[in-house]
Write a structure and sequence with these properties.
255 residues, alpha/beta, Rossmann fold, two-stranded parallel ribbon, globular, disordered C terminus
């Protein structure tokens, strides 16, 4: 898929992975519209104030993009929120807050972008931002992890339905990534170092690392319904890996 000259919509494009994706898309020559609650700090072709948890706001925002730039060729659904609470203390308000953005908001954004593509005969590409938390079981993240699992399944079903219209739907699943959301872990001594140690590539990922994967997947014409991990290999390590408990001799390292 040729991105140059195309119209790309990025939800949550004012910060973190969304912002890095906007920069990558602009580098390809795409015209980019950002949908976010916070004004985009970088130059974009169109900014629309939008809270994806508000269905009417999303419907109007996509209509504004079509009116201002034309129907989308690419949609990157990066708006998301996190949270942390044990199941026994989690309120339904906290559950609904996370699901309202990560699942309902992403669904409405996907639906509206897909409707615009179909209405204008666009064979487009939609990429949702999932998470390796959608397949891992991290304590205190029941709402976040299950919301990302829902995103992964939504992507698969949407890909099966929208393929007939020439629309590809995929997800990129980041691991621990250095974004404002990750900044909340700064209060946990040694957490960043532990994450870097567990990553096969030996560091915490950057927003641009994930953005590279998003733009690459968006451009692939024969890939749909896939969830691609962009996590530096964090999810490759099992928590019951027996090697972690084995003292290795120096000569074992090269075997």
């Amino acid at each position: 898929m040729e991105l140059r000259g195309g119209v790309a919509v990025v939800t949550g494009g004012s910060s973190g992975i969304g912002r890095a994706t906007v920069a990558r898309l602009r580098d390809t020559g795409a015209r980019v519209a950002v949908l976010d609650r916070v004004e985009a700090a970088d130059r974009v072709d169109l900014f629309v104030h939008c809270d994806v948890a508000d269905e009417h706001a999303v419907v109007q925002a996509v209509a504004d993009v079509v009116a201002g730039l034309g129907p989308p060729d690419v949609a990157v659904l990066a708006a998301g929120v996190g949270g942390s609470s044990p199941v026994l203390r989690m309120s339904t308000d906290e559950w609904d807050r996370v699901y309202g953005v990560n699942v309902r908001g992403l669904f409405v954004s996907l639906r509206e972008c897909a409707r615009a593509m179909v209405a204008h005969g666009r064979a487009g590409s939609i990429v949702a931002v999932g998470s390796v938390s959608g397949v891992l079981s991290d304590r205190w993240l029941a709402h976040y992890a299950s919301s990302k699992a829902a995103v992964h399944q939504l992507v698969r079903v949407a890909a099966a339905e929208l393929g007939a219209h020439g629309i590809r739907v995929n997800a990129v699943a980041p691991g621990t990534t250095d974004t404002p959301m990750f900044g909340a872990t700064a209060r946990l001594p040694g957490f960043r170092e532990k994450v870097a140690e567990r990553a096969a590539l030996g560091r915490v990922g950057s927003a641009d690392d994930v953005a590279q994967a998003i733009v690459a997947i968006a451009a692939l014409d024969w890939v749909t319904g896939q969830v691609v991990a962009a996590d530096g290999g964090v999810a490759l390590r099992s928590p019951i890996d027996p090697v972690e408990s084995m003292p290795l001799e120096p000569t074992d390292a090269g075997r």
